Amino acid sequence: MKIMEAIDRADALCPNPYTLEEKLSWCDEVNAELRRGPIKSYDMIEIDIDSFGCVQIPDDLSFERIEAVFYNGVLLDKQDFRTFIRDYKDGGTAFALPKRLKAVYLTLPEKIRNTDVRGEFNTGINYIEMEMQPFEEEDRLEISELSDLSDEPDWENAAEAYVMEVQPDRIILDRDALTAQTAARLAMRRIIDDSTEIDEAPYDSMYVEYILAKIALYQHDYVGYNAHMTQYNAYFETLRRELRERSPLTDLVRFRNYTVI
Fold first, then answer.
1. pTM recorded for the entire structure
2. Which pLDDT tens digit goes with each residue over 108-120?
3. Last residue of a domain, one of 106, 124, 154
């Protein structure tokens, strides 16, 4: 399910005054909880230990997200790296510093980007000049020309294009979607086409239940909040159990031999 589809379903079930930005932040919360729980995703980096025995962990990676550490292909017990290396022996010989370790860490989902920009831009038929671009490669954009920057964009008739390349002073589009001009008044927004972390029924309905629970909470409808969170938690627990049973590492599943008669 697409994130916007979940939001539209929640809005249809319970019309409400809350903004798209607020609902996207609630979907971010569901994404993060799923990725910390049943749907874990990992990556690996090499980290350095300097001559003082200090481990150089990137600023955007906390120690708590590191789940395994390898040295020369050997899995080491995870421990606080601030005291690591000091007494560790490698084949009876102390490490000669600096050394490199491989760390496997839990990745977290990126926040859903709701990017909406307007202003005056120099354009070519397939590019828009701008500095400090808020867009990324493969973003799908809607681009609406404005008579005045205070006008409401006509998104129904807006041009659509993908960002093919991001350069220091411009974005390159994948098609000829514009007219070459100076100081063109444009409104641009990223089309939010992100999918839910779990795209499988009925578990994708967790997003709808969570949005409805948040709406009820902020409207002081605590009965409704408890009802939707009960349904959300039921989906979450069933998903966690099902994925654990599906895992190739589980001992809960056994293959059976069948005789064909």
1. 0.79
2. 999 999 999 999 9
3. 106
